[in-house]
Amino acid sequence: MSVTLSDQDKVTLRTAAYGAVSLMAAAAGADSPHKVATQGSIALTSATGLVGHVLSEKSSVGDLSGKSTAELADRVLPALTAAMQLLKKQAPDEADNFRSTVLVALDASTQSRKNASSPTLTAMTDKITAALDAA
């Protein structure tokens, strides 16, 4: 069975995944947020299956701007839950793939840091995981 996602569905998936990486970069603060974002983004582009195709498209991502990490989180955390709900409904096999892909990206984003177990990054990882699991 072939699954066809609407353009809006794809934007939701990309916003959720790349937004999660953006949240990790924001949580890194002054300690190399660009490295965190780069490593997380590279991990997202190595995804496979339907999720991999959607994340590798050169298309728009939803609004990831904001004046604070809280504003970014207000957009991204609900998008993560919505992405999981969408995939569970339309492509159940891909829901686990999406969750795993995002978690691998979070792990990759912290690998470039000397202190990968910072409390700030751990807390953000917990919030992202909770949003994924809320679906």
Layout of helices and strands:
Layout: H1 7-28, H2 33-45, H3 49-56, H4 69-90, H5 92-111, H6 119-133
Descriptive overview:
The protein is an all-alpha fold. It has helices at 7-28, 33-45, 49-56, 69-90, 92-111, 119-133.
Percent of residues in beta strands? under 5%
Class by SSE composition:
mainly alpha
Shape: globular
Q: pLDDT below 50 for ≥5 consecutive residues: which ranges? A: none
Count of DSSP strands: 0
Concise description?
This protein is mainly alpha-helical and 135 residues long. It has six helices and no strands.
Q: Which terms would index this structure?
A:
mainly alpha, globular, 135 residues, 6 helices, 74% helix
